[in-house]
Design brief:
By secondary structure, the chain is an alpha+beta fold. The protein is about 35% helix and about 15% strand. The structure holds glycine (GLY) and manganese (II) ion (MN).
Length: about 425
Amino acid sequence: MDASLYRQHVQYVLQQLEQIWDSCGIDKLVLHSGCHHYYFGDDQYAPFRTNPNFAYLVPISGPGHCLVIRPGEQPKLIWYSPDDYWYEPTKLVESYWQNEFEMICVSKADDVPKHVGEVGKAAFVGEDVAFAETCGFAAAQVNPDSVVTGLHWIRSYKSDYEIYCIEQANDIAAKAHYAARQVFENHGSELDIHHAYVQAAGGIDAELPYESIVALNQKGSFLHYVNKRRNVSGDVLLLDSGATYAGYASDITRTWAASSVDEGFRAMLRDFNALELALCDAVKPDVSFVDLHVQAHQLIGELLANYQILNVSGHEAFDRGLTRVFFPHGLGHFLGIQVHDVAGRQENISGGAKAPPAEYPFLRTTRILEPTMVVTIEPGVYFIDSLLRPERSGANARAFNWERIDAWRGYGGMRIEDDVLVTDGGHRNLTRPYHPE
Ligand code: GLY
Ligand code: MN
């Protein structure tokens, strides 16, 4: 890691925080890394996920750490490392990021609050409310809306360091996608494909930014299919899987069809890839993400007409809302520390929400695009039984080519997804340099 890139990131974030001190009436921000979540009735806990607002500044995962930020001062990192013999505490090995903080290592939990210090005009952001109380924070000082929305707004514009991390996460995920595809082509099961993916990504499942979607054939029609079937191979693979780098996510989807698949479906998949790239090309400053989503529906209408899935023109398919049966999710979302990153619908630094149009309730991003935002572009076309069923006898039934739909519904569907940075002059695709296909 280039230490100066990270230093610039920290400086950039501190500068951005100038926007919230006075407006939120605070003079100290305490970001807490988080705590473990125990399963119900159990002494086992779920894989740990760091508070993303802490991860924004500190690229190391683990519970119980505190970052204390005051305007104009070097941030103080209270590193909690208990003297434990059940679990090995995270070792603090010298690394590029530590130079940006006043480092305080604490081995007793009771000592952390005194290092947090006065909380008179401070805000606490984190999930460990009991710890915040121990420090003396009043309820109104814990996760105040104005501070959280301020942080989220700032996080929607990425620094060069963050863009670099997302690119690295794309590099890792792209390699893993290729490894997984090879297993698919060798008739592996969903579980085999998943194992190949995780191994090539060089980690464990819990380090992936979200549970991988490894869907063979008809299972691709479940948008968030997360089962991993054993002993079943297939001839269409929809693989939606990312990776993390220094806490930042990538989110890539590819759909592959074997030569045994109907040539018409395979041709449609090739055209669909071109359609996805055309939508990536439309990413640029001042474009509304809602308009891009509408454009996706128009292009999908044409595709459905061209491949005789619908008996009407692309225009008519769009006008009558028929594309929504095949493409029921949003075109994409912000990407960063969280795979569905924050502030996709936020109106301004103080909060507010710009709801999506009523006909597209699942659209996660309604913002006007600006340089340094990172979005995913992920159109899809699926044969979803539960959405098609009512259409078979509905008012639009004759607009659907049921023969073709029934011939292809076993293929599940297709989704292709890239991560795209908005630049001053347009955009930069962060996925295709690593996964050109
Ligand atoms: N990668 C899954 C999703 O974006 O919902
Ligand atoms: Mn996605």
